[in-house]
Amino acid sequence: MQPALIMLTALVVVGTVLWLHDRHTRRRDAQGQLMPDEVVEPDQTCSDDCCGTHEVCPSEQLLRGELCDITYYDDQELDDYRGRSADDYTATELEQWRDVLYTLQPADRLGWERSIKRRGIVMPQPIRDELLMLLQES
Q1: Which of 7, 19, 50, 127 is in Cβ range 3.0-4.6 Å of 46 for a Cys bridge?
Q2: 116 burial class (0-12, 13-18, 19+ CB within 10 angstroms)?
Q3: What whole-number distance in Å separates Cα of residue 103 and Cα of residue 77?
Q4: Which long-range contacts (CB under 8 A, 24 or more apart) does 35-40 make?
């Protein structure tokens, strides 16, 4: 009976150590996003709604929530919307979002979305839909 108890104890200890190691290497922030020190391997598969002209589908990158450094795209006024839900915007505020979106260079749009997410701002759903449409067109 004693050897079985020793083996069980060893398995529990090894399992706990492995669980802690896994938990440490897969740290996530409060929103469930991967922390910046983690490496995210690009997924080479695209969904049906992807145009196929990009190495990695932009909509897939958005869905995975890949992170980058916070970069401001002359959009500091959007920081006022931190903590708001996606359906809590007025028509005037949606126009402010559109002004920023449509003045971005096409190459900056995906980085802008990542920066918005990193800043803790929830993009309004209509603007997110327009962004995805623009990313698929480019």
Answers
A1: 50
A2: buried
A3: 15
A4: 35/67, 36/67, 36/69, 40/64, 40/66, 40/67
pLDDT in tens, 36-81: 444 344 444 444 455 555 555 655 555 555 444 678 888 888 888 8
Domain spans, the chain: 38-137
- pLDDT value of residue 8: 85
Rounded to whole angstroms, the Cα distance separating 138 from 49 reads 13
C-alpha span between 110 and 123 (Å, rounded): 13
For residues 90-104, give the mean pLDDT. 92
Angle subtended at Cα 37 by Cα 63 and Cα 82, rounded to the nearest 5 degrees: 55
Nearest to 131 by CA among 116, 120, 84, 119: 116
pTM attached to this predicted model = 0.49
Burial class (CB in 10 A: 0-12, 13-18, 19+), 20: exposed
